Amino acid sequence: MRFASYWHETSIPFASGTAGPVSGDFEVAVIGAGFTGLSAARKLAQSGVKVALLEAEHVGYGASGRNGGHLNSGHFASFSAAKQHLGEDRARRLWRAYDDSIDMIERIIEDEKIACDFRRGGKIKLASKPSHVAKLQTMCAEIRREVDPSAEWLTREDLRKEVISDAFHGGILSPKSAMMHMGRYANGLAQAAHRYGAAIWERNPVTARERVGNGWRLNTPTGTLTARQVILATDAYTPSTFNYFRRRLMPIASFIIVTRPLTPQEMAAAVPGNRNFTNSLNIANYFRLTPDNRMLFGGRARFSAVSNQKTNVSSGQLLRQQMVGIFPQLANVEIDYCWGGLVGCTQDRYPRAGSAEGVIYSMGYSGHGAQLSTFMGNALADMAMGRKDANPLDGFAWPAVPLNAGNPWFLPIVGTYYRMKDLMP
Fold first, then answer.
1. What are the tens digits of pLDDT across the range 130-151?
2. Rounded alpha-carbon distances, angstroms, from residue 282 to 268, 371, 395
3. By the number of CB atoms within 10 A of the CB, which of 32, 276, 388, 417 ranks highest?
4. Domains detected in the chain
């Protein structure tokens, strides 16, 4: 078993980064080479803007290269809850943004000829308990009425065509949802941004920043650059240079295991529907087949802000137990990959985007950013070019999390609370 991201290990790394030390004067500097930063850099460069991209590690290192491979339509909450929290107009704009983001990703893949196994497979949100069925049925009816008439309720009998398990009691099918190979998409975005003229420096974290006239000077270990505007796209990996955002974000570890390739018989005996799947628990699991027919199975196996080999080993063991609990028919299937990563969560689990502390930002995707981040990266590019109406989250307040300075010590307590809730009937 390899303790590494399947997406990283099965994609050709980006190799067209800018050689030599960081230097130069730019119109826009983008910090972070995940989907948000890469899509922002691509659009800016495509629009003729002189743009630099600074990445602390390598392209797609963070959540963009460590997630479950889902591009799911809609946001996590029921639409009524979103309306109550966000207001009806913002809730509708955000829901449309999630859907539009999948369309945008599909167009970019076609335009840039990125080979990343994109497929509109749909997603099923599975009722893990009989007591969850009525709530999900209400949610499905509301989604159909308000925002997506293509959503469909599947009975337990319907599910037998999709997932072979006694663990589920019905589910919501969202046919607009898609899937892709995350590593290949990230590297394809980077290649496109480079082709349009973006300067991309990997392994150059921003260690300091200071105001210089009407812009900023950004320091890195190899040199400095200046830029009139800065886009911050680091989410859970935001450095201490930007403490304003760290006080508002809670990095939470998420973990994934990937099996060896399944035989056609094993696939048919587990997930004949070949869709994205999530369950309805508070500490949820998610799963899908990879392009080479491996079972990818993930979840928040521990509530902490730490992901390293020690935590990955113990979390991988727990995830295997959970996978076998759902699919006992996979009990003897070997695990080939295990990894973890950090998810940037806000207190209310809704993302935030706008301008603060002299930078333009989008972050706090709270585990639902694989699709939205491309859309928001393009929105940030539009904002940098003066198109302020591009942001569906404009004006949405973002208070700091009490007693949080980027290392949320209280997460194990939160995890215990949700585990207790999941034990209830």
1. 999 999 999 999 999 999 999 9
2. 28, 21, 29
3. 32
4. 6-390 (3.50.50.60)
